[in-house]
Amino acid sequence: MTELTTTGRRVRVLATVAGLLLLLAGTFWGQDDDFPFGPFRMYSTAPDPNGAAKDTRVEGVDVTGAVVPITEANSGIRRAEIEGQQAAYEADPSRLSRIAEAYAEHTPSAPALREVRIVIRWHLVKHSRPTGTYTDEVVADWVRP
Amino acid sequence: MIRRWLFEPVPRGRVAAFRTLVYLFVALDLVIFTPWVRSHANTPGELYEPLLIGRLLHLPTPGPLLVWGIFWTLLALSLAAATGRAPRALGWTVFLLYFEWMIIAMSYGKVDHDRIGLLVALAALPTAGRARHGDPERTESGGWALRVTQIAVICTYFLAALAKLRFGGLDWLTSSVLAQAIIRRGTDLADAIAVVPGLLILAQFGIIAFELLSPVVFIIPQRWRNAMVAFFYSFHVITFSTITISFAPHLVAMTSFLALEKVRPIHWLRSRKRAMNSTT
């Protein structure tokens, strides 16, 4: 068997303890910004069992008038990334022009977009179960000037 | 006693197998599992929101040169590292490049927590020393590398439960969190499950219970440990078949619990070929 030297052990114990302490601190006081030591917060919120569930989508309207869903495949931007920056898009809808830009870059053969909007579909939930009814709300809208 | 546990020796063959698996996964992750990172090569720079670590290290805003440079270098080096050669030099380089790759991935408004186990494995493997496939000699440095990966895997569950209690509180148990997840990304199977009264709430109690109890895996006997790891895997089969969340990097890190040295596909193929040759 190959054994470690005393120093080898010490360094490893130290690294283990430091890593654990950082992860614990991140769990109790950290934010996403502290990656990789931030809290493991995917699905950690407690939405109202009788409220409305949020389903966000991003859609564009191209120069022919067709409505195009903006996806990771045609824009290179993930839905969750747009949701993560939603407040910034609401405060400054012209930021959505970047999505039109990214779409043009990733899907060069498609007609250009003249409008991009973030739409939230609010699904009604009762007793923690989806009811199948919903309403749509546009939270940010940019039209090419 | 904790020291003996932390450095419990494992056969070198296990380290070799884990190493090959982890580095092959890195290559697959680049190409198949996390393909969207590449698309940040031409995401407008204004959408880049650097994480704390990116600001501290003054990492550059990703562009085509950086993203494609890392992609091709990492792809080549991870495949080289999978052979087990130059474990230290290749191992550290792959770790640093993959870490930067992940920083890029998480710097556009969404941070995932499915790969802390993989990152720890990548950081620990370069310290595990040389290891040949099939070598039964035991090693303490290899034992530590596997142990800290296991700890990170279990932290992913246990600390996720604490995060739920921090952000959602006890209300999380009776909230509509799973209903929301199903509405957003549910499969047909999930839609069928969602309509059963009380089932999603029951599942929420189950998730918190299993996440809080997950550290038990370290104190139960080996036979039960394998069963518990099998249960963890089955949990991910269910989450994948209902809300299409794969947690693939975590699943690879979790193989650190298994006697991987017993799985030797290349050896089997060779001996089969030899057997066939000797009969002809």
Which helices and strands occur, and which strands form pairs?
The complex is a heterodimer of chains A (145) and B (280).
Chain A: H1 6-29, E1 52-62, E2 67-69, H2 72-75, H3 79-84, H4 86-91, H5 97-106, E3 113-126, E4 129-143
Antiparallel strand pairs in A: 1-2, 1-3, 3-4
Chain B: H1 2-6, E1 10-11, H2 12-33, H3 52-56, H4 64-82, H5 87-105, H6 116-124, E2 138-139, H7 140-167, H8 177-185, H9 188-194, H10 199-213, H11 222-243, H12 248-253, H13 265-279
Antiparallel strand pairs in B: 1-2
Helix pairs in contact in B: 2-4, 4-5, 6-7, 7-10
The gist of it:
The complex is a heterodimer of chains A (145) and B (280). With 145 residues, chain A is of the alpha+beta class.
Tell me about this structure.
The complex is a heterodimer of chains A (145) and B (280). Chain A is of the alpha+beta class and 145 residues long. Chain A is 34% helix and 30% strand. Chain A has helices at 6-29, 72-75, 79-84, 86-91, 97-106, and strands at 52-62, 67-69, 113-126, 129-143. In chain A, strands 2-1-3-4 form a four-stranded antiparallel β-sheet. In chain A, a hairpin with a 4-residue loop joins strand 1 and strand 2 (67-69). Chain A starts with 5 loop residues before the first helix and ends with a strand. Chain B has 280 residues and is mostly helical. In chain B, strands 1-2 form a two-stranded antiparallel ribbon. In chain B, helix 2 runs antiparallel to helix 4 (64-82), helix 4 packs antiparallel against helix 5 (87-105) and helix 7 packs across helix 10. Chain B is globular. Chain B starts with a helix and ends with a helix. At the A-B interface, helix 1, strand 1, helix 3 and helix 5 of A face helix 5, helix 6, strand 2, helix 7 and helix 8 of B.
